[in-house]
Amino acid sequence: MKLRQRIEEFDGKRIAPLERIMDEGPPSRTTLREAVSLAADPDVRIRTGATWLLKNWSENGVELTAQQTRALLATLPDLINWEARLHLCQMLPHISIPKSSVGTVIWFLETCQFDENKYLRAWAYNGFYELSRQYPAYNDYVRGILDQGEAEKSAAVRARIRNIRKMMGVK
After folding, report:
1. What's the distance, CA 4 to chain centroid?
2. Which of the residues 40, 69, 153, 154 could staple to 118 if both were Cys, CB 3.0 to 4.6 A apart?
3. Do the Cβ atoms of 53 and 28 come closer than 8 Å?
């Protein structure tokens, strides 16, 4: 059965169908390629399921090729639902951001930084940290973003910012 058909079993809430896919172990190259493609699917449920799988696979050590990473990051402007956006933010510590995608990633993180969902905002700040970790030339820019974040209303987001400052060695 194709990955899309299996993700269609996901109702958008209960992740048991996605966990069954994860339980099978690392994806094949074909399955991984299909998941990257489905991350841009017009059906929000399919897109969310695909990004959930990609996030969990990456957290378990599955590496995307440079081409797959570029394709996945090219979907960022089309992601409108917060869940898929969150999954992509959570993947950033596990992928190498291609130089050609940096502008798109910055734009994406800036939009996530002001989302109404506090978890997405917190992970956007973490994404900025990952960007600066991979591209030190952005350290000053990211420090400025963190300074702006001090006005954040959510205690959880402010806590994330404090932790990022510690990791960056800045006050």
Report:
1. 20
2. 154
3. no
